[in-house]
Structure prediction request, 299 residues.
Amino acid sequence: MSRFILSLALSSLLVSASGEAQTNAVPAELPVKLEELSSPKFVQALEKSGHTCVIAFGIIEKHGPHLPVGTDLMQVREMCLRAARREYTIVFPDYYFGQINEARHQPGTIAYSHDLIWNLLQETCDELARNGVRKIILVNGHGGNNDFVKYFSMSQLERHHPYTLYLVDPWGSPAVNEAVQAKTKSTQPGGHADETETSMIMALHPELVHLEEGKAESGADQKRLSHLTHTSTGIAWYAGYPNHYSGQGFNGSVELGEFQFQEYAKWIAAAIQEVKADTTAPALQEKFYRDALNPGGKK
Ligand SMILES: [Zn+2]
Prediction:
């Protein structure tokens, strides 16, 4: 074998040996953020992502006296971006058009009407579908959206949609939640602008956290509706936490923030992987839409 042929054979060996790496090498250059993709790259991103897109659902609301009002948006977006870099998908631009009526009394809260938040989410899903997305992964990072996203998800069965909507709760893993709780030092329950949330913003944007100011207001449950033991009401959150602060944010640490991002990103990446592999839910949904047009198959 001549040296030329040998080197040719070697180079073809290299290509085939690294074929998978090279196949990945091109798409690996694809940004995960939708807004950073060119139009032709968007088409490549659709292929690489298995026609999936994540909407990282945040909000703009007060987060205690010490955190930015975009805390939930920044957190969930960072989790999703890290997840998408582990398991490729397209991440929709900043999305914070959710339910936050309970914080309308606090400066900096942007509370859109229920009509608008519904229509905007529906039209966003429809537009993604028109562009070829077939699986939409809604990752909700704001507790006030929980009921909204569940109802929205069920309502997708009302009429035919050419996509399947999957919901992901970043805090859906009890094991991760336990591991995070084990690392906290707060002596009072939290959940909003608390040690965990403060830590994530410290890890992401330390310059936006005013740790000492986290002591300026109470993050304790005011228990003003503790006499209601059999019912719930819309004013309950305001009754308990009028400062829009629940917990002891001043205990935050960069280390805890990093740990959470790492763990939540892993959880969300596993969810993305699951969605990409799933063919059953889309098939069942199509069957359901057909069956729903002719209940019982009698016509
Ligand atoms: Zn929050």
